[in-house]
Structures are given as structure tokens and as C-alpha cells.
What does this fold into?
Amino acid sequence: MIEKEYLNVGQAALFLCVSKSKLMKMCMRREVTYHKAGRLNVFSRKDLQEYLERNTILSANALQQQAEANIMNLKIKRHGN
It folds into this structure.
């Protein structure tokens, strides 16, 4: 099966697991990237995937690991100057 690169509103809503009205509100608030094809809004799969990745909620464990890595990087930078 060939997957289309661009999705219509209904397909994009399914991709994001939201209703069409929620997706249109997200468009009005410019939370998601979309393109105009005449009067229609169309969505790139790549843009929708990037939206999902930007809105990832880390687990407490992953957040702790990220904080520890940031602290180590700061210590390395301070000692390097």
C-alpha cells in the first residue's frame, strides 16, 4: 500500500488521534503546520510526526536522566573554560 505524503483534515486527525474540530482549532492557534491547497488545509506526514515528537512527555525516569546529563555537561563546560 502506498502512503500519501499529504493528508486531508480527516486523515490528519486520525493520524494525531484527535477530532477534526480539535485539529482545526490547533490550526487556528498555529500549533500544527499545514499547507493550503486552494481552500483546503492539507498536512504533511513529516510535519505531523515532528509535532508529535515535539510534544513528547518524558517519564520521570527519563526526565531525571536528562537532568543528570545536563548537569554533567555544565560541569564539563565550566572546567573547560
